[in-house]
Amino acid sequence: MAKSYPFRRETEDELILIEAVIEGSDLDLILDSGASHTVVDFGVLIDQGFRIGDTKGLIPIDTANGILYVNRFILPKISALGISKQNFEVTSYLFDNIENNYQGILGLDFLEGTKFCIDLVENEITIDLKNNKMYKDVRCFLIERARLQNNEKISYSELSESCKLNLNMDEPHHRNLIGEILGNISAFEFNNNRPLLSSLVIGKDNNVGDGFYKLCE
Q1: Which among 128, 161, 194 is the end of a domain?
Q2: 49-78: average pLDDT
């Protein structure tokens, strides 16, 4: 199951901007397939409560201004393109140009193990969700739960906790993310003539999500 995500790039001279979320805060990152490390402006990390004393040490990175020795930090969670990483290491320094329309660089370390395609005609990136760890963890958990054959339901919060997704259902972005994962899982099962696994997961109103009913229609 693949999912496409649009990106902003108004002219061919502009860089690819990706929307990302760090601990509930939205930011724009440049997608750089030539960068091995993900970089986040230290100003963003300061807003998140990080201090220089939280560094895990220095590492050299190659930038347009030459080699820089930058600090390494561990983010509890970062999400972009339907992918979420927990305890993810990023490099960080204070960006000089405050007029930048981006707050960092999304490197290949974030996309490691992911099959993706960049479409410069439609301005979208397609991610193969079957290779997404969160997708696979949720699907495997629901398959094992379905095998119990007790028809016992589970809430979104309980699903997040059981699969160690570290999602907060009070956060709209996190609710959308888990809903998207469940929708793609059910679409995959439906296309293979199998029961919709998302029927095992219910919201606060004890009902399954709207996407389940739309797929059944």
Answers
A1: 128
A2: 89
CA nearest neighbour of 165 among 196, 133, 187, 127: 133
What is the span of the domain harbouring residue 86?
Answer: 2-128
Contact 48, 23 (CB under 8 A): yes
Containing H/E element for 140? helix 133-146
- 105-127 pLDDT, tens digit per residue, is 999 889 877 888 999 999 999 98
Residue 157 DSSP label = H
What is the predicted pLDDT for the residue at 209? 59
Q: Are residues 28 and 74 in the same domain?
A: yes
Total number of domains in the chain? 2
Q: Based on the fold, state whether residues 17 and 97 are members of the same structural domain.
A: yes
Q: What is the DSSP string of 174-213?
A: HHHHHHHHHHHHHHHHHHTT---GGGGEE-TTSS--HHHH
Radius of gyration of the chain (CA): 19
